[in-house]
Amino acid sequence: MDTDLVLILGIAIGALSVPAMVSALSDGYAPRSAAIMLLLSGGMILFALISHPTGYRIDQMAEVFFGVIARFIP
Prior knowledge:
By secondary structure, this protein is mostly helical. It is built from three helices and no strands. The protein is elongated and about 40 Å long. The protein has helices at residues 3-27, 32-51, 61-72. It has one domain (3-72).
């Protein structure tokens, strides 16, 4: 799997885990699924950062994101 795709999926899953965690905490439940999502996204981001030959910089994130999106839109 492409490291750019893994990075973007990890960021997206991490972003989706935040509202799930807030919702679970506000309802008085333990945020188990949100914590699993957060761990999964952290692992995916770490894997992408380690596996990419040159690494990623913050100023490359928009380019990487739109590059991944452009591969799926004909």
